[in-house]
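Title: Comparing notes on inverse folding

I've been comparing how different people in this forum approach sequence design from structure. To keep things fair, I'm posting one structure and asking everyone to reply with a full sequence. Here's the target:
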């Protein structure tokens, strides 16, 4: 190494810029790095490989290196490791629908569901257990998704109403209301890039005259024209020691029978709006009740209410009621 280089490299003052003679670069590079003591920055402007003897590893030209595939973002981030998905195709290959859940047994559900958030309830506390209930759906049905305790806060911040998500690795539980999916710390939640609203499912139901013949505590789906909306009331919930809003509405269908439907909680606010025409109301999972010999229908926590849904039955009811009004006016 030239003497002037050695003298400058041993200095500990202000950094200097030094040009290294090109013909000694390889012979002195290691020595230069040792004397740097992390105080010097060496800029190599040009280099030529003089010898090519030993090869370590598997070097490849930069243009041939494939970009590393990045995993899809799991919104349920916590200390518990979760399954990793690298593409939408991988999610779609493991996809099942809500209707398929009826054929599965209780327990771990490793499959992926593509669900849209219909309604997210407030976090409730029961016997020191905090629970978040969410009604979600695809084109085949509605399912209740729940999260407990600390996870309920996390999920409450993640999931937004009217957005669609891929959900995997949950716990499936069957009950009298249908299917319920319990989220875990390791559950996967990935937001859908293509936010396409799922096609509204058709319902299988009978007319009101037939439904009223069922025994009390029978669950069913119903659809009808809302011809009367009652005032909102506040009732005491003895189990949760809270107050809950209630509203009674009256529906009619093509059988010309009218029924009373009790709507609870935040759902009562859906009828604050002033409709130009009587709205079509469709509810999944209502229960038939009887009090003092009078039968009525009531929503429960698993019920899902739709106003003016885009299903054939709703369009047919709307046309039928228009004709009915015209006949009465005539």
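Reply #1:
Here's my take.
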């Amino acid at each position: 190494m030239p003497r002037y280089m050695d003298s400058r490299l041993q200095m500990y003052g202000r950094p200097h810029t030094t040009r290294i003679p090109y013909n000694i670069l390889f012979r002195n590079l290691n020595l230069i790095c040792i004397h740097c003591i992390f105080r010097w920055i060496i800029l190599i402007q040009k280099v030529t490989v003089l010898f090519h003897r030993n090869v370590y590893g598997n070097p490849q030209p930069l243009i041939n290196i494939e970009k590393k595939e990045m995993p899809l973002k799991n919104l349920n981030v916590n200390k518990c490791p979760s399954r990793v998905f690298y593409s939408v195709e991988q999610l779609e290959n493991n996809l099942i629908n809500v209707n398929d859940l009826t054929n599965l047994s209780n327990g771990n559900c490793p499959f992926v569901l593509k669900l849209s958030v219909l309604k997210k309830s407030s976090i409730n506390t029961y016997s020191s257990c905090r629970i978040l209930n969410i009604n979600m759906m695809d084109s085949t049905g509605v399912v209740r998704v729940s999260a407990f305790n600390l996870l309920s806060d996390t999920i409450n911040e993640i999931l937004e109403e009217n957005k669609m998500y891929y959900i995997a690795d949950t716990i499936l539980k069957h009950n009298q209301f249908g299917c319920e999916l319990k989220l875990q710390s390791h559950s996967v939640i990935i937001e859908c890039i293509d936010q396409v609203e799922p096609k509204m499912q058709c319902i299988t139901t009978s007319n009101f005259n037939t439904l009223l013949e069922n025994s009390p505590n029978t669950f069913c789906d119903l659809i009808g024209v809302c011809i009367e909306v009652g005032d909102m009331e506040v009732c005491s919930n003895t189990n949760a020691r809270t107050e809950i809003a209630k509203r009674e509405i009256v529906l009619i269908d093509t059988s010309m029978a009218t029924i009373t439907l009790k709507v609870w909680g935040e759902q009562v606010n859906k009828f604050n709006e002033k409709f130009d025409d009587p709205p079509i109301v469709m509810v999944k999972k209502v229960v038939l009740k009887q009090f003092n010999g009078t039968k009525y229908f009531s929503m429960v926590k698993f019920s899902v209410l739709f106003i003016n849904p885009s299903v054939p039955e709703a369009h047919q009811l709307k046309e039928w009621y228009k004709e009915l009004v015209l006949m009465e006016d005539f």
